[in-house]
């Protein structure tokens, strides 16, 4: 590690569970963020800030005014522009050493293997069932950890798949649903809370610190601040 790295990431490096070796692993890591909306915004921001060396961003959407209540990567000036391009610019401004791979595309079966195989970990920032089942199948096939997160109204959940045999998204939710869930309201800070937990799981996986949510589903309700971790 360079002197600059030791200074920039000093608050992480001083943690014995991470240290210089863990910070170096973050620098060498390649993480794919699927969807850079409400969940993807805090995921990408905190992974970039933590020193992850390469982030792949895939999303075919553009910024809209209704996004700004919860998608903290974007500004009013960026309304109508592709999210991945705006996100990449913001993340590079946060960390000039970061490599950002931009994919202004929808994650579909035809391209999934070509993209996923280049990354160490896949993180879910999506809002539809088809993409989640696709990510489940493709990450399981490639043996890649899949960090899952979902939100609705005031509630969210996070888990990590593919660390143990048979523990996949499809195994947890075997009844395949179709389509994008009907639009529901969402408290603006909810994706921030859930996305930060997803980012924490990614950092734990890369550095080897802590116990990941393998075989466990973490849930939270912001109305009551009741949080549970369920084994499956």
Task: Describe this entry's structure for a reader.
The protein is of the alpha/beta class and about 230 residues long. It has one domain (about 5-230): NAD(P)-binding Rossmann-like Domain (Rossmann fold, 3-Layer(aba) Sandwich). Helix content is about 35%, strand content about 20%. It has nine helices and eight strands. The protein has an eight-stranded mixed beta sheet, sandwiched between helices. Helix 5 links the parallel strand 2 (about 55-60) and strand 3. Helix 4 (about 40-50) packs parallel to helix 5 and helix 4 runs parallel beside helix 9 (about 190-205). The radius of gyration is 17 Å and the shape is globular. The relative contact order is 0.16. The model has no long low-confidence stretch (mean pLDDT about 95).
